[in-house]
Amino acid sequence: GNTSEDSLRILQNIPTKTAAAYMRVSNPVNSSKLSLTEKGICEDIQCKSEELVIQKQGLYLIYCHLNFYFPNCSNNPIDLKIEILVNDKVNRQTLSTCCASETCQEKTFTTLFQLHLTYLNVKDRISVTLNHPKFLNEISLPNENVLGVLRYSDEM
């Protein structure tokens, strides 16, 4: 099945007293931040159009799962950078070079997954930026591009 929808269904059925957000993301509209397009789960976290705002301090697991599509790969290396921002400052980043091997075909797909465990305070804002948002695969895998935040503990 669709792993994103399966994950959402599992998270919705867990009885929890903790903060959690699980949102589909898409290309940015007027900034470099990814847009949050569909409310999946938004418990004790304020879900805005480009960021999540923490309502309870604690230790949080932030994860971002993104799929990319390169229609014209042909051995031209492309560096993809994903940045998780907290209060508009880079808190974690991932850099991956795509389309750089001889096995590249004309059309190439790749997936990047980022996990980050960090302590967050009330009113901290979480967002994600991409250096090449045009390659985000919103056509064949739109429901698989997600940003999730889960309050792991209220202690450090």
From TrEMBL:
Source lineage: Eukaryota, Metazoa, Chordata, Craniata, Vertebrata
One of the Pfam families matching this protein, by short name: TNF
Gene Ontology BP terms: CD8-positive, alpha-beta T cell differentiation; immune response
Superkingdom: Eukaryota
One GO molecular-function entry: tumor necrosis factor receptor binding
Family: Belongs to the tumor necrosis factor family.
Protein name: TNFL8 factor
UniProt domain THD: residue ranges: 1-152
Classification via Gene3D superfamilies: 2.60.120.40
Recorded GO CC terms: membrane
